[in-house]
Amino acid sequence: MSIIEIQQAEGRRTPLLRRFLRKPSGVAGLVMLVVPLVAGLCAPLLARLEGQDPSTLHTNLLDPDGGRPLGAIGGVSADHWLGVVPVTGVDLFAQIVYGIRSSLFIAFGASILSIAFAAVLGTAIGYFGGWLNAVAGRVIDFMFGFPGLMFVIAIMAIVPPEMPRGLVLVLVLAFFGWTVPARIIGAQAGAINARAFVEAARATGAPPWQIIRREMLPHLFGLVVVLFAMSLPANVSVVAGLSFLGVGLRGDVPDLGKLLSDSLPWIYSGADVWYMLFPGAVVFLIVFGATLAGDALRDVLDVRTEDAA
Amino acid sequence: MRDPVLQVEDLSVSFTSGGVTTDVVRDLSMRLDGGRTLAVVGESGSGKTITGRAIMRLLPRGASARGRIVAAGREMLSADERELRRARGSDVAMVFQDSMSALSPYLDIGAHIAQAVRLHDPSVTRRAARARAVEMLDRVGIPEPADAVRRFPHEFSGGMRQRAVIAMALVNRPALLIADEPTTALDVTVQAQILALLRELQQEYGMAMLLISHDFGVVASAADDVLVLYAGRQAEYGSLRDIFEQPAHPYTTGLRAATPRLDARLDSGGKRTRLRAIPGAPTSLRDAGPGCAFAPRCGLADQVGERCVVEVPLPTVRPTNEDGGLHLAACHLDRLPALQEVAR
Fold it and tell me: Fewest C-beta atoms under 10 Å: which of A71, A90, B18, B127?
């Protein structure tokens, strides 16, 4: 058996990306996640393409009596692709793409930070156990008992105006977001650490870092992806809630949550359902896409579900 | 005389939990030379697995070992983590009972073996380590090793997996192999193949093997010497021949009577015999009394009397059929009655 033959045998393994792209649900999820993300990233460009901006008022497009947009589907036209916002007449498409930019990036930032921290801490808890587990466990208990939302509201209320509110929101959400994932990952890591193949790796002389990286992390990856996919929509809604309460982003910064909460009376009265449907569809796409892509990624990473091909 | 590959002196292992300390292994000594196999035999809970783990210093949390263990020239009990890591997998290796759980489901077979190679010689390239893995799989008798190397554990049969585990343990040619029930999870025909493979590789590499088993059949086909453990203590030690031909501890005879034998008919003069279980359950280590741990289950304790329940018997020298062989038994009885009488 020559080395060349071995390399050839090795080469037959399908790369990760191709296996992911072979899964229709994964590709669909990825597209649903990436399209709004790119739209958010390119918000100024898209708004200019449309010929609008997210702050100009177009009161001439509103019904003077009640302020609902004139025309069908919430005032959709060649100039205003998704219509205009009731009462103010601001362009809804520009509001949405700018809104994705602010809320999604805050949610992403907070989820990445909190899940990354939870993954590191949870793995350490699982591997080292003992006093680390005891101390971290008590801290997490304390955080559970802590009125997090009250704290977030208080913090956001006293943030000095010169500080970037978006960044503060990311940090505050991350600070309260790591506890549950850390506990879940810690429990799972502890269970893996007790399994025989970790013992076997130790018996071949593997150092702790190697055991964590090669034996434990592959088992935890799926869980981390799922926790991230769960954390993202939760953070989107918390940002929306805070904006609704007036302690989120500044009033003049568009964000999806604010759009949704502002649209509530219009959908209750049935006067302008499109005001909620358009931003709602975007939130739905992002959340559903994250879930689908997360599931597919987990399946692809799990060698046991890989087909023999 | 050459230095033994494994020397254990007065090894005691204790567990502390909830402020209570329990000795699970007590005052154990053994010696094992290269190319030889020492079988450690006993029931569940007799401390045989813990003894194997203690030699590699892979004890569970809460366990501590005292005494002295020298394996392949290394003081295992006083070594620091770095030195232990250097010893594990290169001087001393281990084969586990359950091959399915001893292999990570996320790594292919080759990765397991290549990792063991590169851990002990970082200068080996990834590619060369994979090539070593293929060679080693070929050596342990896995067909089409170049293909098998990139299979995952779940794609292998039990026997193949155990071969892979052996390849992983032996790829660095350890001086000492600790085989913890290596054939227990396998069916009987595969058992024989795996034992034969282990013996063959042992001869080839000249390594010492500590075979942990509860199965006297396995012991009889693979061991040179036998150490019988009961409740963490040495009950009897001797050559395979002495243990089988003139056992000097009632526990050894009890274990033997409980092992199915193909030649049972001859033994009992043509009459069919039932297997005899040792009465009672293994002694709880926590409430061990002052006397012999086996006394409550021993059919001969009443022949000795009081002494069995008040005094722990120490290993003493017994007659041997082997030239220069050492035969020890920890029993107050100097001579056991013949096997049939004990079993009755």
Answer: B18
Q: Which of A3, A13, A215 sits opposite B127 (nearest CB)?
A: A3
3-state secondary structure of A23: coil
Q: How far apart are the first and last CA of chain A?
A: 23
Q: Which of the four pLDDT bands, split at 50, 70 and 90, describes residue B343? A: very low
Domains of chain A: 34-303 (1.10.3720.10)
Which long-range contacts does B298-301 make (Cβ < 8 Å, 24+ apart)?
B298/B250, B298/B251, B299/B250, B299/B254, B299/B342, B300/B250, B300/B333, B300/B336, B300/B337, B300/B342
* Closest chain A C-alpha to B93 CA, distance in angstroms: 6
Is residue B230 classed as helix, strand or coil in its secondary structure? strand
How does pLDDT run across B4-40, given as a tens digit for each residue?
Answer: 899 999 999 999 888 888 889 989 999 999 999 999 9
Q: Distance between CA atoms of A110 and A182, rounded to whole angstroms?
A: 15
Beta strand B208-213 pairing with B37-41 = parallel
Hey, what are A28's tokens?
Answer: 């669909």
> In Å, how far is B157's CA from the nearest CA of chain A?
15
Distance CA A15, CA B242 (A): 59
Chain B partners within 8 Å of A300 (Cβ): none
Cα R_g (chain B), whole angstroms: 21
Q: How far is A208 from chain B (nearest CA, A)?
A: 10
The closest alpha carbon to A212, from A129, A134, A304, A126, belongs to A126
Q: What is the dihedral of CA A208, A209, A211, A213, to 10 degrees?
A: 160
Sign of CA dihedral A163, A262, A106, A104: negative
Q: Which chain B residue shows the shortest CA-CA distance from A203? A: B88
> What does the DSSP 8-state code read for residue B321?
S
**What is the band of B285 on the pLDDT scale with cuts at 50, 70, 90?**
low
Element containing residue B159 per DSSP (H, E)? helix B158-170
Q: What is the pTM assigned to this prediction? A: 0.77
Beta carbons within 10 angstroms of residue B196's beta carbon:
13
DSSP string, A155-190: HHHHS-TTS-HHHHHHHHHHHHHSHHHHHHHHHHHH
User: Among all residues of chain A, which has the CA nearest to that of B177?
Assistant: A203
Between CA B185 and CA B172 the distance in angstroms is 25
Chain B residues closer than 8 Å to A12 by CB:
150
Q: Are strands B316-317 and B37-41 parallel, antiparallel or unpaired?
A: unpaired
Question: Helix, strand, or coil here: A107?
Answer: helix
